[in-house]
Amino acid sequence: MQPTRFEIGLEQLSKIDGEAGHNVIQSLEDISPDLAKFTIEYPFGDIYSRQGLDLKSREIATVAALTALGNCTPQLKVHLNAALNVGCSEEEIKEVIIQMSVYAGFPAALNGMFAFKDVLLERHSDS
């Protein structure tokens, strides 16, 4: 039997976001279990599992987009961790954020870099 979108998505979520991703899903369960399910099925079950880009490339694109949006700090932090989880180096992530200063402006890049600083501090304090 072929795995469902949900099963594929849950596997991808675990691989990419680990505990942080599961925390997001759990935080939705009491207010909108449907949104939790959709979050697993669509982005992780349908998109992250597609051929054509590896997970590192997908996370670079995601970090760039969330940085450029400038108002998604919680989601950006989850994906900054995910980028590190799938093999991006700290230097690569910093460069992606700096690159966004050209297209999204300095405020967005500054906010992105401060979010990354928080992520690194959290990761180093956990180890």
UniProtKB/TrEMBL annotation:
Residues 33-117 form the Carboxymuconolactone decarboxylase-like domain. InterPro entries: 4CMD/NDH-1_regulator, AhpD-like, CMD-like. It comes from the Bacteria. One of its GO terms (molecular function) is peroxiredoxin activity. This is 4-carboxymuconolactone decarboxylase.
